[in-house]
Amino acid sequence: MMPGTGLPASTRVIDVGAPDDTLARALADAGIERYLGLTAARSLAAVRAEAGERAVRYQPLDDVSVVGRCSADLLVLRSGFQRLVWAPDDLADFRWVAVERERAVAGAEVRAAVRFGLARGRLRRAGRWQHGQVELDVFEVGEPGPRTPRARTYFNPGWGVEGLAARLADAGVAYAVLRWFDALPAMEPGEDLDVLVADEDVDAFRALLESEPGTVPVDLYSVSGLAGSDYQGAAYYAPDLGRAMLARTETHRSGMRVPAPADHLRSLAYHALYHKGTRSGLVSRLVADVVPDPEHDYRVALDKVAASCGVQLPPDMEGIDDYLASVGWRPPLDALRRLSVQNSWLRLRLGQDVAEAGGPQLAVFLVRERALDVLTTDDVVAELRHRGFEPLVVRPLDAAARTRGAQQLRGGNWAAGPFPVSGGGPALLVAALHYAPDPVSPDLRQRYPHLANESIYYAKQAVRDALEARLGPDAMFNAIHSADDETEAWEYLDVVAPDAVDEIQGRLRRRIARQSAGPDVVRTLSRGRRARVDVVEGPGGKAVRKTFAPVGRGHLEREVAALRGLAGRVAAVPELLDTGENWFTIPWYDDSLRLRPGRLLPMRTLRRMVGVLEEIHAAGWDLVDAKPANFVHDASVGLMAVDFEFAYERPPGDTTSFADSPAFRNPNRELYPDLPVGDSTYGVRWLPVTGMPRPVLLEGSPVQQHLARLRYRLRTATTRPGSPLRRTARWARATARTAFLGTTRRRAWSVTT
Fold first, then answer.
1. DSSP letters of 517-538?
2. Which of 117, 473, 482, 540 has an alpha carbon 20 to 30 Å from 387's alpha carbon atom?
């Protein structure tokens, strides 16, 4: 696709290494006027003289790396620059790339680079165009349609800063150049403009800059951190501060709008501390190894602006942080934590790198507006309860609370994120207690460094799954937000429901006291989301007491009913010794059964487990949560089944076979409305310790069982995900690919003018 054969008139063209005005004239004849030629400095004057009225469209090619830092639809690579095609991934932001053909030795390398891109599927042939002595091969490198907006955009160097300012003024855009504007309209090569733009003007600002091919970088940040104009997924500044700053901007001598002096001081200090951290070069009492030679001298710049405002700034980062807090410019905790992921000084300043799971913890969930058009409050609460969260306060937020939450929490960014539409701002508060926070997996920790309880993540996912079940995946949006840990939870409450803090604190204390260990506790065996299990010293010796939280009331009733219903019928079911309002006791067993990851249980033990479950089934009960971990082995009494929270008495006339019972199959939610959290399939519960398929375990001969276990061990060691052999193969492939791509990129970027 080239001029005269369908290239749109709106196409923006950057011509790298343009030796003359020939291509620009041909494009203009085809109706394409959005052209920018980058020309070697030694040839620039001659090319501009030839171009006449188009002279301003030719700019010096100071650094070939500008190819990876510009905005255009068509990139033309002239003689000497074609080898950039060796790294087609670096050209993916363009729609097309046109490569000048060469007959000389250099042409062989160009053809090899093109074949490499075609073979990898990064280039797709789009035709050939010839004008005079210029012959170009054209390739598609991007997909049709609009590009995903990014914070980094570019404007045409031919405009100059003053020309950009005039265009922005004509468009009526509300914006502010945030810093380093003293020298404007002059800009050093490679320097960028950091610009804050009103939410309602972001599209107009971007469209204006991208109406022409551009190479002068602009980092565009919207007040609320809208998608494509955010900073690390949030607003650049707290939105209320950004809005106030834009309302007070002044006109710089270059014509650009800039912050008022007090806003300039505070926003620059904010940027130095919270965005740059040790990279600012500022002195810190917490960190000794600050960057000695930062890109800008923040100390000098801050002192200069502070003097103009009559302010004496403290000498170190900690003091400046206190100053920003005193004038209302310190971000809220959740925003600071987002920023601290890439700011080591800020992590130390906050006093913690990772919030660890511990005892019972408060959690705060904020359900977003659009979610309540689909789910009821009861739907949301039911999902949270199922994952062990006991609601303490459930409250719709009034208009004032919604506004405070939207502006002060989640970095001020309640936009759509990765979804087609936004879920709206916060509309419903659920403050809940979780009695046994789950440790956060390494993968999840990498994504959410301050998450203290993995159940928070999965509870939110459960609400989203309930929403998707009603809407379908194409209509999804982010339905719910949460605090990462208890510290953030209290801050959220201070923002959206300060009048409920005392009430929640009181309820929290009472709930935790009811779940605390009594004086008779010898040791604690486990603390779960519904109950804690302790070894206690009783009149008849040691016993096991299981104490349930209010969220586990139904589980207590089911377990007591099962223990009573199976008493005297199944010898491997413990005796119910005593019960209370929220607890029961059974005998203590000296357990010698040790379950270890990757270790198969002895066949004798497995056969006995199956036999016990078959007896329970024959007695008319389904043990939905049956798994090896719910057995203990005492030398004096043998194998015993424990944990009957999910035991259901089968209805009269039920003829389900033992093999088809939920002890070994994923249970049906319609038949068993309350199910365990997580995957209850045989492959998850049983296979890792049996090493054989379900039919072989239940009906296979000893020979079949042992052969199945042998095959399982071989697969585990060789072909299964995570096996040593596969890990070694993945490492070898990744190493080879990294080395190869690194070499090709170095070749591509070795071009000089």
1. --TTEEEEEEE-SSEEEEEEEE
2. 473
Q: Is 606 exposed, middle or buried (0-12, 13-18, 19+ CB in 10 A)?
A: buried
Q: With left for phi above 0 and alpha for psi between -120 and 50, is residue 218 left, alpha or beta?
A: beta
| Main-chain phi, psi angles of 218, to 5 degrees | -135, 130
139-181 pLDDT, tens per residue? 988 777 677 888 999 999 999 999 999 999 999 999 999 999 9
**Residue owning tokens 């009181």:** 506
On the question of a cis peptide bond just before residue 721, with omega within 30 degrees of 0, the verdict is no
Beta-sheet pairing, 35-39 with 58-60: parallel
What lies within 8 Å, CB to CB, of 115 at 6+ separation is none
Q: What is each CA distance from 496 to 225, 301, 405, in whole angstroms?
A: 20, 37, 6
* Count of beta carbons in the 10 Å neighbourhood of residue 121: 8
The DSSP code for 479 is: -
Bridge partners, 674 (sequence order): none
Q: Which residues pair with 138 in a beta bridge?
A: 98, 127
Euclidean distance between CA atoms 580 and 702, whole angstroms: 46
Report the C-alpha dihedral over residues 128, 132, 133, 135, rounded to 10 degrees. -10
CA–CA distance, 132 with 29 (Å, rounded to integer): 14
CA separation (Å) from 683 to 281, 543, 596, 687, 692?
Answer: 55, 33, 16, 5, 10
Pairing state between β 257-258 and 216-222: unpaired
Beta pairing partners, 409: none
Location of structure tokens 């062989």: 108
Calpha distance 426→367 (Å, rounded): 6
Question: CA 343 to CA 364: how far, in whole Å?
Answer: 26
Contact 674, 646 (CB under 8 A): yes
DSSP 65: G
- Which tokens in the block code for residue 654? 């039920």
**How do beta strands 621-623 and 647-649 pair?**
antiparallel
List, for residues 628-676, the tens digit of each pLDDT value: 999 999 999 999 999 999 999 988 888 889 988 888 888 877 778 788 8
Local structure of 303: helix, strand or coil? helix
- Side by side, the strands of the sheet bearing 35-39 are 58-60, 35-39, 13-16, 74-77, 96-100, 134-140, 124-131
390 vs 384: CA distance, rounded Å: 8
Tell me if 248 sits within 8 A of 259, measured CB to CB. Answer: yes
Two structure tokens written together for 171: 């468009």
Q: For the chain, what percentages of helix, strand and coil (3-state, to nearest 5) are there?
A: 40, 20, 40
Q: What's the whole-model pTM score?
A: 0.69
DSSP for residue 589: -
CA angle 434, 439, 444 (to 5 degrees): 110
Nearest to 676 by CA among 622, 601, 752: 622
pLDDT band at 36 (very low <50, low <70, confident <90, very high): very high
- Report which residue type is found at 305: V
